[in-house]
Each structure stands twice: as structure tokens, then as C-alpha cells.
Amino acid sequence: MSKVRLGIIGLGAQGGAYAGFIAEGKVPNMVIGAICDTDPEKKAVAAEKYPDVPFYDNYIDMLESGDVDAVVTCVPHYLHPEMGIEALKRDVHALVEKPAGVYTKQVRELNEFAATKPELTFGIMFNQRTNELYQKVKQIVDNGEIGKIRRTNWIITTWWRPQGYYDQSAWRATWEGEGGGVLVNQAPHQLDLLQWIAGMPKKVYSNVKYGYQRDIAVEDEVTALLDYGNGATGVFITATHDIMGTDRFEIHGDNGKIVVDDSKKVTIKRLRKPESEMSATMSMMDVAKIFMGGDTDDLYEEEVIEFESVWGAQHSAVMENFAANILDGTPLLAPGSDGINGVALANAIHLSSWLGKEVELPVDEDLYFDELQKKIEEEKLNPIKK
């Protein structure tokens, strides 16, 4: 096999974009093997754009057709684990979209089944992991350049969505159809990057607003306090109603600080001595000079790096890496098993707000599932979307 034949399940915005990337040659080690969608209109679209590509209206039929070596699941979140399992059952490699699922119980089932098929490639579309900026940040943290982490702070509110966005489909922004709001739709990449770079917190306490500025049942505003269990803390803020949104990620360590602005610029400040040593040895005269705006060159060095990002290149890079793993064993940038971590964080944030208290990770999976079912039943009795 020189190229992987990818089956695209769901020819919506994301699936359509992936088909375009492959057709345009942006994923050199991959071709479109087949397309599947339950919408008859998508069949006409596929016939016009990709006349030589087989089309299916049932994804099981596509998995069993022999037309595909792998699939990508561009479908509502609840279906990702089920489709991943069904593909792997039939010895078809699986690339699941983010998030890996809505709740960790179903994602764990996917991970456990995938573990029984080590010969198959199981990946997740965490395209931000291919972003050179975040790779650089992770490298700095992993290398210990800023020392032990003391605090993380990410405000990511660049997800402005008007009411019309939510009204365009009945399933969107519902507990039954989507399983949540900004935490499961827009912010999974940041939740993944946060734990990928800084590690998983041990406890979460959250203040979450449901339908705060939009006529929806799910969350459109989130503030979460993270406890890493070793003294370090974090704050994660996200929302979909800020038209002038902010994207700023700070990591403060014993020996320095990293600030990411707009996912484009990284400022690294490396202390010349650990903060604890400075605190123990500096005279108050030296401290006064700092407070009065004195020269800081003796305290820390500063490095600023700016990155350019081309939309679509990151998604193509994940697909190319996924195909390379199938073809020659190239290590995966985003193993599918990692998907459970971001889902666990989202579940913990939800559960803390539902219970009105701090929750420990990993969360009680059965409790989360039961509380989610309550939300679904409440939504059926009092639907916001008619």
C-alpha cells in the first residue's frame, strides 16, 4: 500500500473540508476511498465533486465494502466512539474527530477496544498538536526551562457564535444532540493542549452559565478553577458570546513564565535565578529598584517568537501523520487514546457546576452519565429549541 484509502463518514463542513484537502493533494499519502452520508442531498454533492468515489448511506456498508483502509468520523459527538469501535472491529483504521465522545464512559469503551487491536492505527483529530507554537511551548515545559509549574491561566473566548449559528440545526447546542456547548464543540482543542502541556488536574471547581447570552440549554460561559494536586493551580475561561474575544495562555513556573497571545506569539521569560532563591537572597534595596521600574536584565532574559498559521494545514498534517503511521509506523502526534483526557476535563467542569461543589478527577463515570440523562430529560420536557 502506497496510499491510504480514507472513508469519510459525514460530508458536512468538516468532512467536506477533508475531502477537499485530499482531492487537492494536500495529503500526499492519502486518497478518498469512499464517502458516506445519510443525507440524500450530500449524495448529489459527492457525485458532482467526486464522481469516481463510491458513496454509501450506511457507514457499516462502507466499512465492509473493501473500498477503505481507514475512516474519519465527521459526525455528532455521541457517535464517535461507536463508529470508532465498529471500524476497528472490521480491521479498518480509525481517526475520530474531536471530542472523542461526550462522556468518559463511552470513550473508555473505545480506548479499551482499540487496545485489543494494537496492529491498527487509532488517532484523533487534535490538529493543534501539529501547531509549531504549541509544540514549542510543550518542549520548553518538558525541558524544565521554566521549572516546576505553579499556575496556568487560559482565557479562550474567541468563539463568538450568534444565535443564528445555534438555530441552523435542531441537534446543535442540545444535551441530547450534542452533549454540551462550548466545552464539547469549540474548546476541546484547548482542553487537550492544556493537559498535554501542563498535565491533568486532580480537582476542578467551576462556575458555568447555561444559556447565559444565547437561547440554548447548554453552556455558553465557563470559568473553571483547576487544582493540580501539588500546590499548582489553574484557571480556564471560555465563552461563545464575546465578539471581541481573547486568546491568552499563561504558564508560570519556578524559573520563568510563558505567555501565548492569540495562538500566534510566544513570550518566554527565563529567570536567571529561581524565584525562591531571589526571594531568599535579594536585599530590599534591590527589590525597591524593581518596583521603581529598574532594569530587569539581571533578573530574566526574554525571548519572543512569532508563528504563522495557515488554515487547513494543521488538519492535513494530522491526516498525513495518521496515514504515515499506517504505512510505515511513524509515531502518532495525536493517539486516539489521548482523547479521553479532554473529555474527562469537560465532564469534571460540567459535573462540578451541576453538583455545586469541587469534584475530583477521574470523575465518577456513572454519576456523570446519570446527571447527563437528567439534563436530557429536562430538555425534552422543556425544550428551548422548538
Task: Identify the notable features of this structure and list them briefly.
alpha/beta; Rossmann fold; Dihydrodipicolinate Reductase, domain 2; 2 domains; 9-stranded mixed beta sheet; 13 helices
Task: Report the structural category.
Answer: alpha/beta
Provide the low-confidence segments as ranges: none
Largest sheet: 9 strands, mixed
Alpha carbon gyration radius:
23 Å
- CATH level 3 topology of the largest domain: Dihydrodipicolinate Reductase, domain 2
- Whole-number mean pLDDT: 96
Number of strands: 15
- The name of the CATH superfamily of the largest domain reads Dihydrodipicolinate Reductase, domain 2
Q: SSE order, as H and E?
A: EHEHEHEHEHEHEHHEEEEEEHHEHHEH
How would you describe this structure to a colleague?
The protein has 386 residues and is α/β, with parallel strands linked by helices. It folds into 2 domains: 148 residues, Rossmann fold (3-Layer(aba) Sandwich); 221 residues, Dihydrodipicolinate Reductase, domain 2 (2-Layer Sandwich). It has 13 helices and 15 strands. It has a 9-stranded mixed beta sheet. Helix 4 runs parallel beside helix 5, helix 5 packs antiparallel against helix 12 and helix 8 crosses helix 12. The longest helix is centred in the last third of the chain and has 17 residues. The radius of gyration is 23 Å and the shape is globular. The N and C termini lie far apart (50 Å). The mean pLDDT is 96.
Question: What are the SSEs and their pairings?
Answer:
Layout: E1 4-9, H1 13-23, E2 30-36, H2 40-49, E3 55-56, H3 59-63, E4 70-73, H4 79-89, E5 93-96, H5 104-115, E6 122-124, H6 132-142, E7 149-156, H7 163-167, H8 188-198, E8 203-210, E9 219-227, E10 233-239, E11 247-253, E12 256-261, E13 265-271, H9 275-281, H10 284-291, E14 300-306, H11 313-328, H12 339-355, E15 359-360, H13 365-381
Parallel strand pairs: 1-2, 1-4, 2-3, 4-5, 5-6, 7-10
Antiparallel strand pairs: 7-11, 8-9, 8-15, 9-10, 11-12, 12-13, 13-14
Helix pairs in contact: 4-5, 5-12, 6-8, 8-12
